[in-house]
Amino acid sequence: MKNITDSFVSLGHWPSAGSFGFNTDILATNLINLSVVLGVLIFFGKGVLSDLLDNRKQRILNTIRNSEELREGAIERLEKARARLQKVEMEADQFRVNGYSEIEREKLNFINSTSKTLEQLENYKNETIHFEQQRAINQVRQRIFQQALQGALGTLSSCLNNELHLRTISANIGMLGALKEITD
């Protein structure tokens, strides 16, 4: 501490003009040098420094302004995307509802057409059974008639002479022809 005060005291005391020498007191010379350098920097560098700071301030403000614009654009795009999402969700719900109603409608149509087809098949089956019954009845009738005819012919041929026999055959053939026309 004594060196510092000595250096300030020595500032007030200048050596004589005729002598030139080096001041070896580091603290005293550094303070003087620093104050001179700072004074020169402040005097000449004030404009440059203020220009640098103003440029930096403008860049920061421009960056903030650009960020705000980008933020507003992003918010706007987000709102548009949300609106589109809501619209798509509504359309999807509508398609889902329409799809379910379409499925129910198709299901009912399928059930109705299947029941109609089953009804038609039942009718065809009944008609086929009725037709086969009629055919079987007709076959039985023909067989019975043939057997009865053969039995009658056998009885007649043993009882009748040739002339009576021929007339009976002709009459029976006529009756068979009439029966055939009726069954056809």
Describe the structure.
By secondary structure, the chain is mainly alpha-helical. It has one domain. The protein is 91% helix and 0% strand. The protein contains 3 helices and no strands. Helix 2 runs antiparallel to helix 3.
Q: What is the total tally of β strands?
A: 0
Rg estimate, integer Å: 66 Å
Low-confidence stretches: 11-17
Structural class: mainly alpha
Proportion in helices: over 70%
The biggest beta sheet, please?
Answer: none
Mean pLDDT: 82
Q: Hey, roughly how much beta strand do the residues contain?
A: under 5%
Query: What oligomeric state do these chains adopt?
Result: single chain
Total tally of structural domains: 1
Q: Helix tally?
A: 3
Q: Shape from CA axes? A: rod-shaped
What is the terminal-to-terminal distance?
Answer: 153 Å
The ordered string of helix (H) and strand (E) elements is: HHH
Protein name: ATP synthase subunit b, chloroplastic
Main location: membrane
Coiled coil: 64-98
Family: Belongs to the ATPase B chain family.
List keywords for this structure.
single chain; 184 residues; mainly alpha; hydrogen ion transport; chloroplast; proton-transporting ATP synthase activity, rotational mechanism
Spell out the blueprint of helices and strands:
Elements lengths: L1 H11 L13 H134 L2 H22 L1
